Amino acid sequence: MHALRTTLIASAILLCLPLLSISQKKVVVLGSSTAFGAAVDQGDSAWVNRLKNYYNRNNSDNADTSFYVVGGYGFITYWVMPTNYTPPAGVTYMPNPDNNVDKALSFSPDVIIINLPTNDIKAGISKKAMMNNLRYLRTYIESKNVACFIATTQPRNDMGADQKDSLRTLVDSITINFGLHSINFWDDLVTNDGTNSLKDEVRHLGYPDQDYHLNNVGHRYLFFRARDRNIFAFSSNIALPVTITNLIAAYKNNEVRISWNTELEELNTVYSIQRSTDGITFNDIATIPGRGAQTSQSYSWADQRPLQSKSYYRIKVREGSKDIYTKILVVNSISQSLQLVSIFKDGTSSTVSGKLSIDKTQTLTVNIIDMAGAIVDKKLIAIAAPLDLFQIPIAQLSSGKYFLQFISKDNKTTTGGFIK
């Protein structure tokens, strides 16, 4: 009954979405188990099939869009390289001609989406090698006049902290290298405790593959990201120049303040702030015209009538006829005098950093707590209202998982986890 209800809800959502008029197209997804819909309880729940059904709802031309999946469970980038590709010295992985990029191109596709989220890092392949392979694949595919999109890595729980961090940093590398031809499959799946782990609500709980395979909800999130990329809306050499950084949504004084910075705007850039009650269906609540500046710009807007309890926010960015969407931010609209907004480690593992939201400037007590619940270190830090950065030295700690507990002068607390 739950699965049926989920399917009906998803169908209702899709009926409300605008469709492009798409004539006959061919799409190949080149990937591993996620691309094949591993762990979904019915085929139509897989993100690839959801995307196929979305495009096949166009009835104006009596031509359905064809989708094919090439690759296999556990596949890595070396196995999908062109048949005539020669690996670097010392690399024993060879292309698999029956399931590689040449096989994908044999379908004469208009678009190839590469979805190889974790297996390279799990196999011990370096981030540099994985990125080199992805760049090679994109150049090779586009040389055949086929558009290429590359999905980012995804969080995975059966890894150590270093490998998890490699998956996280590869998200940035893929986004920076491939721009509008990247698809963010990370932000909606990862926990917000700084451990770079797969959220319980999206993983295949109760099964042997629960540490890395997604359930129906997880695949639905991937579908939304792939749909929003609008793969048929532009050619392979068009990029959206605007870059958004420092996107923050924080609750204070009965309103949610949303702020962001930009680089390289076009003259017709428009920012639509969208809000949702469930993180799935979003509605526009404000429109902010861009300044058309090539230099750094700062924007902010306040939702003075926030929803009660948890809300979801994102920004739709429009330049010309193209739309992109920022990551989704979750805000708890219950008044909090002290709130941990973010937590992350630096590259050397000597410092844990983050942001705190606070109602008044003060000195906080910070307890570093191990997994046994013991306080292993204590600090005092000064935090300025309403939002401030913090840095806590952790070089003295042994490897393991810890919690930071922040305590205000009026004994309000907020806690977040990290891995040393």
Describe the protein's architecture and organization.
This protein is of the alpha+beta class. The protein has three domains: 17-229, SGNH hydrolase (Rossmann fold, 3-Layer(aba) Sandwich), CATH 3.40.50; 243-332, Immunoglobulins (Immunoglobulin-like); 338-419, Immunoglobulin-like (Sandwich), CATH 2.60.40.3080. 19% of the residues lie in helices and 33% in strands. The protein is built from seven helices and 20 strands. It has helices at 2-15, 47-55, 101-105, 119-122, 127-142, 161-178, 216-229; strands spanning 26-31, 66-71, 111-115, 147-151, 182-183, 243-252, 255-263, 270-276, 283-289, 297-303, 310-319, 322-325, 329-332, 338-345, 351-358, 362-370, 375-383, 387-393, 401-407, 413-419. The strands form five sheets. A five-stranded parallel β-sheet has the order 2-1-3-4-5, sandwiched between helices. Strands 8, 9, 11, 12 and 13 form a five-stranded antiparallel β-sheet that branches. A four-stranded antiparallel β-sheet has the order 17-16-19-20, with no helix packed on it. Strand 14 and strand 15 form a beta hairpin. Helix 2 (47-55) packs across helix 7 (216-229). The longest helix is centred in the middle third of the chain and has 18 residues, at 161-178. It is globular and about 65 Å long. The protein starts with a helix and ends with a strand.
